[in-house]
Specification:
363 residues; alpha/beta; TIM Barrel; 2 domains; eight-stranded parallel β-sheet
Length: 363
Amino acid sequence: MRIEELETPAIVVDLDVMENNIRSMAEYSRDHNLNLRPHTKTHKTPEIARMQLNAGARGVTVAKVGEAEVMSGAAIEDILVHYPIFGQTKLARLAALAPKRKILVAVDSKVTAEAISSAIPNGSSIGLLAEFDSGMRRCGVSSPEEVKALAEAISRLPNVRFSGISTYPGHIWAEPDKQGGPMEELSSLIGEIKSQLAASGIACEVVSAGSTPAAKTSHLVDGLTEMRPGTYVFNDRNTVGVGACALEDCALRVLVTVVSTAVKGRAIVDGGSKTFSGDRWLSGDKTGFGHVVEHPGIEFASMSEEHGNLDLAQSGYAPNIGDRLSIIPNHVCACVNMHDSLYFHRDGTVEVSWQVAGRGRVR
């Protein structure tokens, strides 16, 4: 089948580009002696996770227990749940994974650590990473002293072990050649934390951080042992806008069809917020909802649930009903989670379709 034969809207992925993205990040991590633990929130697809592992990743990262269950069910052995898991049912499901796989969980409170410890059956054990805030102001304790106190508390608990520290530097959105300052700040903070832990006699095996925009400056962070980029596998308009990749590194497109030209200067395509998600462009000039590959002058101006509204004023494009367009989404992770399956092609010929098995696994 050719991608032109697919019903739209449909997500298509260029296998050559995706494989190059996977290979490039794996090579970077090896060259800089960093363990690579890709975040699977971007693709939620075990087959892609297996490709990343085969290229050299040491394990995978997930956000929710449901995603961990999907990856564990696909025989992936080493899983980091980088999210503060809480709630009796969730913890019971997490505990069920402990005897089968190597499980790590990031925590930022003694309450969460104690709840996980209580849920894990005797004879099993999982590792806990003490999460600290490095500037994102989302999760993580706020000082080296708090990290030390949390690590000490974890070390006293049964059925869990203190495995190291983690952070998400998602606030770093400068272009890569301007990331030296923020990375130096992160290095300094990690150094302070490790000094505090060493003073208490606590070993810190893992120092985990990372995001795609800052992935390939990770070697500037002293003491880092592990990186967790996710978006790089496909890339998206945000990644391009921040300078972390080029348009030709975007492996994923959403194929859409022009379904209405009734309004002068506009075209309506058959993909709206239930196809792309409603994520704004966070980099670049922060306008529009995607990059129209065939006609870059088009502004993807607005969306309703099933309608994508294209502003043609600056493009010179005269659309016909039935025309097909391919659009690079602003935020690929949220876009993929809207779809049941992805179509993978080389030079336009579909080779395989894989289910987005982790789609909707938000618990």
